[in-house]
Amino acid sequence: MLYSEKVMDHFQNPRNLGKMENADGIGEVGNAKCGDIMKMYIKVEDGIITDVKFNTFGCGSAIATSSMATELVKGKPITEAVKLTNQAVVEALDGLPTQKIHCSVLAEEAIKAAVKDYYDRNGICYDEKDLAP
Ligand code: FES
Ligand code: FES
Fold it and tell me: Is 103 a catalytic residue?
């Protein structure tokens, strides 16, 4: 079996898929390896990510990892959400085939880009290295 049950589940029933009106932060990133694109929207209240949505033109693994990533950051403080790594997302999905690991990077980068956008819009200072992919 190439893909875990969790990957198949998140691919077939992606959580938090779609656009968000009035997002507080939007991150758009491209995958240097395959050229695929990912967009992440966040809603923030009192430093907590209260809602998150994603849209991607990426493959099934990109969909599954983003779906899992949105579940992992929803309801979390921003400071914790930006620490989410693609390895943690892959682990939460019970693994991904090696040649698909690059797809999981999109979700992590998109979340960080959305947070950066939120910080920029609100004039909040941050350390670049905290938001580096
Ligand atoms: Fe680029 Fe999967 S979408 S190879
Ligand atoms: Fe491009 Fe998966 S995101 S191959």
Answer: yes
